Amino acid sequence: MKPSPAYKYLNIVFFGLALFVNYLSVVYELGGNTIRELSDKYDNLFTPAPQTFAIWSLIYLLLTVFLVLQFVTRYRDSFLTRSPLFLLSCIFNFSWILAWQYEYLWLSLLIMLALLTSLTLINRQLQNENHLIFRLTFGIYLGWICIATIANATAVLVGSGINPAIGLRENITVAMLAIGAALVALIMRQLKNPFLAIAVCWAFYGIYTKRANDHPVIAWAALAALFAVTIWAIFLCYTMEGKRAGKRQSP
After folding, report:
1. Domain definitions of the chain by residue range
2. pLDDT, tens only, 204-232
3. What are phi and psi of 85, to 5 degrees?
4. How many CB atoms lie within 10 A of CB 40?
5. Orientation of helix 196-211 relative to helix 132-159, angle to 10°
6. Residue 112: its pLDDT value, please?
7. Which of 22, 95, 166, 210 is 20 to 30 Å from 84 at the Cα level?
8. Residue 155 near residue 44 (C-beta atoms within 8 A)
């Protein structure tokens, strides 16, 4: 039995809604502020440089490619074309924008965790498919959301009035960078998707450039985390390719 095409079209509809809400947040400043202005309002030492957020352009471009490939013969039987996971991720995407814009910070964190969960499940299912472009797309997306979740949690603490001394904040941020790198390394290994490293390393580089002058300890910690994740991703690629080569040679 052929899979129902319904989800293919629903994926497009809900992705369009996510883009529309994103557009409204930028052009009409929902809640009276842009996403960047709110990020500055709840600024913390883990927040990367503003230009780092340009990665959303790449993520949305890759998601658009995914939506087109749904209708290509080679990809049309992917589980994503018969699963609600992608449209759920779109709902969480624009719901987060609304919660953040209207400064429901705790709600925004819960929604971010839901988005993180949906993308993790998507990447887990993609292990069973040989679609490199999908693994690239959702690997980068998940990698960025991993870091965004930590930043969102930190912003919630700032919004709650938790403001320790600068020395303690530096130490906490360094610890968060180490924990973030370790968690991402574990996730990459479990999901067998080294593409998470692209977004994660970009985020760490954004933290490095933003803190290079005012908090060099954090900047160097971010750079160390970047190199650690990069080396781990290269190692995973090497070992995964070795396993594939072994399978091809086995009788």
Report:
1. 6-249
2. 999 999 999 989 999 999 999 999 999 99
3. -60, -40
4. 12
5. 40
6. 97
7. 22
8. yes
